[in-house]
Design a protein that fits this description.
This protein is of the alpha/beta class. The chain has helices spanning about 10-25, 40-50, 65-70, 90-95, 95-115, 150-165, 200-210, 235-250, 275-285, 310-315, 320-340, and strands at about 1-5, 25-30, 55, 75-80, 120-125, 170-180, 180, 215-220, 230, 235, 260-265, 270, 290-295. The chain is built from 11 helices and 13 strands. The structure holds UDP-4-deoxy-4-formamido-beta-L-arabinopyranose.
Amino acid sequence: MKKILVTGGCGYIGSHTIVDLIQHGYEVISADNNSRSKISILDGVEKITGKKIKNYNVDLCVLDDTHAIFQENPDIIGIIHFAAYKAVGESVENPLLYFDNNLNSLINILRCCQEFSVPNFVFSSSCTVYGNPDHSPVTEETEIKQAESPYGSTKQMGENIVQQTVNSNHTQAILLRYFNPVGAHPSGEIGEIPIGRPANLIPAITQTAIGKLPQMQVFGNDYPTRDGSCIRDFIHVSDIAHAHTLALDYLIAQKNKSNCEVYNLGTGNGYTVLEVINTFEKVSKQKLNYVISGRRAGDIIGIFANNEKARNLLGWNPQYSLDEMMQTAWNWELKLKNTQENK
Ligand code: WQD
């Protein structure tokens, strides 16, 4: 079996990717210290796939503990590295927490990748590396600008570290730049579990709609866009997950032309915040209680992807519509509420 180590496997994108990997014939182990995730998400993975996933509860910033995973699993043929903090606002308040955690964990994983000659490495990056682009859609060749936050800096630096490390060894790498991952697995068994008050738009919408939050804010409607609110490329988390499986397939088949390639993962459609809210209200039949407030520091006006490279080379074809993204996100919020009520 092709054994893959998924770091951050209990996280939102990590758990969805484990499901997709298993459904495409991979064997998977996870490494996640559950500092920002819940081990219970793997119960949902088991319900969907029938597979019990072994998770190593390890702080990847501790090299000896990280090394022990590889000593116990010398047959790992690929690594997908998700484990990182990802709250833009928190990173602005506490930059060193982000540089320490996100970069030291990456460096330790790459050290082990090198020592154990793991041939394939996929890095979780983000459209945030583009900063505030002059225009959209952005391609992988679009100029990389000054990051808007320390979180964005860790993704830019992370890409550089991977690029320059694999140049010196036999690992082949792919960097995947996610646009805005949203929604939940159609089974309703796994989804996003924000820790504390959600920073991201979709959990803020669903938690307001279900009554966990009294009201949500639309951060600004005075941007130079069609309705004044920001534009983003929302992409279903299951589409993002499948791109990781395709990236591994591609590397294992040695189809890559260089030892570190980069791909945009977005639908190629930009929607405004208000359009997303309208779509949610239509799909959920819930009126959303929101107010227009001031702009949020660090927000960019708009960005959406040119995804032709991933389509043409990885064979990736995102399936989910915005309606389905909103429906699955809402179904998951309803599931969370039912689960909490039945405790
Ligand atoms: C989207 C839009 C907000 C909340 C960040 C990272 C990116 C990725 C996703 C990790 C913005 C508006 C939001 C709210 C609002 N992170 N908004 N009210 O900032 O585009 O991307 O998170 O994978 O790398 O950069 O996502 O969902 O926070 O915001 O009006 O309560 O929704 O102003 O315009 P963002 P977001």
